[in-house]
Design brief:
Layout: E1 17-20, H1 27-44, E2 47-50, E3 83-85, H2 86-94, H3 104-112, H4 127-137, E4 149-153, H5 173-183, E5 187-190, H6 193-197, E6 200-203, H7 216-219, E7 220-222, H8 225-238, H9 243-260, E8 264-265, E9 268-269, E10 274-279, H10 293-304, E11 311-316
Parallel strand pairs: 1-2, 1-6, 2-3, 4-5, 4-7, 10-11
Antiparallel strand pairs: 8-9
Length: 331
């Protein structure tokens, strides 16, 4: 993967870091936010601080394995993005350099949460306490929200101050229009020296008011398309699921294709293949989203029934098989 001229032109004498808090939602939300952090760290030359293993929402059902690290889902990419564990970051940059909690109990709580933590404020291994501490000792904690802000990465003008980087006095009418189109109703944040020069940037992103629940390519706008395309390829090619996950998924797909062979519909042999649905039941917070099997059937019969001999694969958290009713016809 050929890298374009670097977004960063300013040499740095000291290490610079980016820490963040995993999103409070399910895995796809966590992954989306993680990709933002990877791109930001890579584009700005920061070392990405990987969070401690924690009980990720809906991935914490195993009694013997409730804690997971985000990075364990992905193939290694530390050859293109510098990373460090939270524990190693504390050893290198916090202990002996930053003010620690004054009472021994809270110091112990903090140090006990570096490898593994729980999302409970009063827990002895509290993620909440750890991230509140990081928010206090970080040099900057951006108050950005994915629905209200967009980040502009301009490789030509990034060194300008925040005051001079006003979208209405940008100077390049074409680029100004592109930024307005990208951000729509959101407020643009221009990456500048103030952001770049701080040693430790922390994103308080587990909090609803500073949540970055958006795809990186809809939040970060590179004014140079070559640089933007480079980071899209970086995420596509390097921030990908591990070989173990890819192979497990491949086995399922192979099994489904093999099972679908030889099926017939309308008197003709069906080509190998299958339909798939993701039926979410228990992980929706809004009852109106939990529609019945009959509604599922009504909404999908237009493309299911003409090919009722095709195999239907359903990914779901619904454990009661009788719930699926008419959909079993296509199983």
């Amino acid at each position: 993967m050929e890298k374009p001229s670097s977004f960063i032109k300013r040499p740095q004498k000291t290490s610079r870091y980016l820490s963040f808090e995993p999103d409070l939602g399910g895995w796809n939300n966590i992954r989306m936010e993680f990709e933002i952090m990877v791109v930001l760290a890579a584009a700005t030359g920061r070392t990405l601080i990987l969070p401690p293993d924690n009980p990720l929402y809906l991935l914490n059902k195993e009694k013997e394995n409730k804690h997971r690290g985000i990075q364990t889902f992905f193939q290694k990419f530390d050859d293109v993005v510098s990373t460090i564990s939270t524990e190693d970051f504390f050893q290198k940059e916090i202990i002996g350099k930053k003010e620690m909690p004054t009472d021994e109990k809270n110091r112990t709580r903090l140090m006990s949460s570096l490898k593994q933590c729980w999302w409970m404020a009063k827990h002895d291994h509290s993620c909440v306490y750890l991230y509140e501490y990081l928010s206090q000792v970080a040099d900057m904690v951006p108050q950005w929200h994915g629905e209200h802000h967009c980040l502009i990465m301009d490789d030509v003008n990034w060194h300008k101050s925040a005051k001079s980087a006003d979208i209405d006095s940008y100077g390049d009418l074409s680029q100004e229009q592109q930024i307005k189109k990208f951000c729509a109703k959101r407020d643009p944040i221009f990456y500048n020296t103030e952001l770049h020069d701080v040693t430790h940037l922390h994103f308080h992103s587990h909090h609803k008011d500073t949540r970055l629940l958006v795809h990186y390519y809809a939040f970060i706008y590179f004014t140079n398309p070559k640089i933007g395309n480079y980071y899209k390829r970086l995420v596509r090619d390097r921030v990908r699921y591990s070989d173990e996950i890819q192979c497990a998924a491949g086995k399922i797909v192979k099994s489904l294709i093999e099972e679908s062979m030889g099926r017939y519909f309308n008197g003709a042999g069906a080509e190998a293949g299958y339909f798939s649905m993701h039926i979410r039941r228990g992980d929706f917070q809004w009852p109106k989203m939990r529609i019945s099997a009959e509604e599922w059937h009504q909404n999908t019969k237009g493309w299911l029934e003409p090919d009722d001999q095709h195999l239907l694969y359903i990914a779901t958290d619904e454990s009661d098989r009788s719930w699926f009713g008419k959909l079993w016809v296509f199983g």
